[in-house]
Design brief:
Serine Threonine Protein Phosphatase 5, Tetratricopeptide repeat, 2 domains, globular
Length: 272
Amino acid sequence: MALHGFDSEDKAIILNMALFFDQRADSYRKNGLNEDADAYDSSALDYYKQAMDSDPEIPDAFFNAGFFYIKSREYAEAKGAFESYLALTCDITDEELGENGQYKRERAQELIDKIKNRNLEDTQFKNAYKLISSGQEEKGLEEIRQFLQSHPDVWNAWFMLGWGLRRLERFEDAKQAFLKVKECDGGDENSDTYNELAICQMETGEFEEAEESLIDALNLDPDNTKIISNLGFLCLKRGNPEEARKYFATVLEIDPNDKLAKAEYEQLNREV
């Protein structure tokens, strides 16, 4: 922010601002602070748009913006950003790009192909996400079910179905949707799949299965405080407050500002 104050027109600094707000939003969302995360995401998007409007263009602005759009389920915009990245780097040799640049080019093409092959630009898919995220779960579930009739192998769609059902506290139905996610190509590579599945398993009383799911999630994303907190909540459901306290303490070591873990940790300390 100090650098931005010195030169507010420098597009490289603007891109770094976008990355900062983007990563900060992820941190807040992992801690369940969704309103704060949404505010940081809004700032990140503004800075990404400024960075992509650079002359000459900054390829990395489009590459990183692509991931931001994927996070926001804006797959058409993500595809466009990655395509712009490839267009801006197509005349650069592999030697000039270096190992990291070659990886980015391959990764961009991979994500473009996945978006196309899974029909994630589909209007029904986009509408389903917007409806569910805005609290209109039933309407969103109608949209995603229609999408699944034509695209039954898209894990992202089964995940959205499970997410909407879980928000409605239909935990058994949501659990079946998340189990379906694991069967689809790519669905078992996402820690959120296992974390969401574990939440449903906890609510249906399947504690051993929930523990297995959370361990699988943690193996994919070891520093995710949301997953570690859920291990703590699982211990509480099993009647093991001392073990739960250790998990919440671990969360606070990673992020001392995690409000939910702090509240649970302090409550458990009072009960000792």
